[in-house]
Amino acid sequence: MTTRRRSVRGIPRVNSWPRWLRRQPLELLASAVIGAGVLMLLQPLSLTLYSYSFITTLAGVALFTIVSKLPD
Description:
mainly alpha
């Protein structure tokens, strides 16, 4: 079942955004980056991974914030 958004006049709108630039795939990517940053923060083995964990988590949160504004 597909749902199409309709414009004000009832004419179906064509989504001109490429499929990879839509919200769902990029939200999954942003969530994975956030998860990777948290795992990097919690691991006890590498100080280098721990050092980059905050910037990785921050980048994931910034990406998620930007992606949440994209169309479905």
